[in-house]
Amino acid sequence: MMKKRTAILLLSAIICSITSFIKPATGVIPRQKSVLKTIIIDPGHGGFDNGTHGLISKEKDIALAISLKLGKAIEDQFPEIRIVYTRTTDIIPGNMPTLKEGLRYRADLANRSHGDLFICIHGNSDGHTAGEYAVKRVIGHKTARKGKRRRRVPIYETYYVKNTRIGTGTYVWKADRSGFKGDAIKQREESGDDMGDSTNTAFDMSTPEARIRAQLYEKKFFANSALFATLVETEFIKAGRHSDGVMQRNEGIKVLQATGMPSVLIETGFLTNKEEEEYLNSEPGQDQIVENIVSALKRYKEMLEGGSPQGNANPDSTVTPGQTK
Length: 325
Known about the structure:
alpha/beta; Aminopeptidase; 2 domains; 7-stranded mixed β-sheet; two-stranded antiparallel ribbon; 8 helices; 9 strands
């Protein structure tokens, strides 16, 4: 009897999961209870890991300043949402000695906290020295003697180029790394999180039913990640920022793959560009970035919970291959 009841519960959960992902023909999602109870905010880098350097600042400090303001703004506008930070000071809790351990800590904390959305804040670099960078060019040739032989060699001139790269970009986890996301979903369920399932049961992930359910969540989480990322970049564009759009990095981003929830990494601007670095360090600049993200979050929340049409935000149309940071 118990086995039969368990099987019925499992099948009911799968059917509910499938039907919950299907949008009605009207193009409107039925109103449902809040799906954003906990948001994880992850200020990139920290401690010994400075991230990229600008002329006047380090990425870890910019990320922390924006993240703390973002959390406060979300709490003010959505008091029902719980905010969990992966760090609130320069040091990652536990003073993780390696990058790998630090990333594992962030993802584990997010999964243990049963987050509904993971927002990672970063600053960007174009790979060149901040401000200006040196470039060599050939301006002529000369003849050089080596023993009895003569050869023609180039003459180089070094000149400096202003670093002009600017703009935002939001990454989502690499879709072909679904196995990693599935492992994260498994970890979250094993921690006792029902993830909105009416049965309030953490399933044995070795069963076919549970694996199917995890695959459904992977698809849902990717779609929601891309949707939120698109809304964020749309708000940046409205504010007059240049946007590189929504991207997937070729080698994937571990902290996004290891979190069992919709997750994004927001590049707020280029620290290697003098003017944009000054903007990222300024109170008005940080406030505008926070306002843009909160506006996107409001639209995201309404679209998931309030039955708003999704026709104006098609995430698939904006997901483009990303560049390696």
